[in-house]
Design a protein that fits this description.
One of its GO terms (cellular component) is plasma membrane. It comes from Rugosimonospora africana. It holds the Pfam family DUF417. The protein is an all-alpha fold. It has one domain. Helix 4 runs antiparallel to helix 5. The model has no long low-confidence stretch (mean pLDDT 92).
Length: 155
């Protein structure tokens, strides 16, 4: 890794800090929203169409599944933010978030209406555009995992 005393090293450090902070804030905020009725309704078409989550929806119900997702997001965000104190836990949170974002990206395939009909495979609708941003969050999760693992190996 480049020295942090160089402009590139300082930019890397700043970018990683902003990425970790933003990823944490997104997970905590969106996780907290899962306890609101409108968010339960917003995710309903996504989870019922998902082969991975439809079973949980049937078993737990809409409200409980939303709460479980919210608790998961809040937990992962909290773990990611713990990097200065617990880099291993932070790495685990980042890998958990990466898994979660892979699942939400699968909604692009499973959710009816995620693509503009008649416009081709790569033409997302508003729902699809909402989901595709998770590719950036997936990348952020992988970067924060790598950063946390560097902290484990070089305390």
């Amino acid at each position: 890794m480049r020295s942090l005393n160089t402009p590139v090293g300082g930019l890397t450090l700043a970018g990683t800090f902003v990425m970790r902070s933003a990823l944490t804030a997104n997970l905590l905020w969106i996780g907290a929203l899962k306890f609101k009725r409108y968010e339960v309704e917003n995710i309903e078409p996504l989870v019922t169409a998902s082969p991975l989550l439809a079973w949980f929806r049937r078993r737990l119900g809409a409200n409980n599944l939303a709460r479980l997702i919210g608790i998961t997001e809040i937990t992962l965000g909290s773990l990611i933010s713990a990097k200065p104190l617990a880099p291993r836990a932070s790495a685990a949170g980042s890998f958990g978030a990466a898994t979660m974002f892979l699942i939400t990206l699968s909604f692009l395939i499973s959710t009816p209406g995620a693509r503009q009909e008649g416009e081709g495979v790569w033409s997302p609708s508003l729902v699809g555009q909402f989901l595709v941003k998770d590719s950036v969050l997936l990348g952020a999760s992988l970067v924060t995992a790598a950063d946390a693992l560097r902290g484990v190996n070089n305390p």
